[in-house]
Amino acid sequence: MDAAYDLNRPLRLTHAAARLPFVTSSARNFIVETIKPAEDGTAIIVRGFEAHRQRGPVRLSFSQTFARISTCSLLEGEERRLAKDSSSVTLDVAPFEIVSLRLER
Q: What residues contact residue 10 under an 8 Å CB cut-off, 6+ apart?
């Protein structure tokens, strides 16, 4: 999987101040694929997937605290609240599962 991403996303050298990553994953098998503003403009959507056919917990840590973190559908509607006033969340993922999170400030 890493080799495919390296091929399709060539390295770009930029000069910028060092910053913390917006999101980090505790598991190498969980790939954070998308970070984008929600269509309604009230939240941030983070989408990722399990890439190595492994089941288990994954902890996502964010560089800031959010008032509400919840799972959401592909249409970005809230499904299940996971955390309140938190900068991290732990998910139990199934093999090849796609996870969408809605982060509200």
A: none
Question: Is 24 domain-assigned?
Answer: yes
What is the DSSP track for 5-56?
A: HHHHS------------SEEES-TTEEEEEEEE-TTSSSEEEEEEE-SS--E
- How far apart CA 19 and CA 28 sit, in angstroms, is 21
The boundaries of the domain holding residue 81 are 19-104
In a domain, 8, yes or no: no
CATH code of the domain in which 54 resides: 2.60.40.2220
What residue type is assigned to position 82 of the chain? L
Of the pLDDT bands very low, low, confident and very high (cuts 50, 70, 90), residue 26 is: very high
Give 40-83 pLDDT, tens digit per residue.
Answer: 999 999 999 999 999 999 999 999 999 999 999 989 988 999 99
Which 8-state DSSP code applies to residue 102?
E
pLDDT exceeds cutoff 70 at 7: no
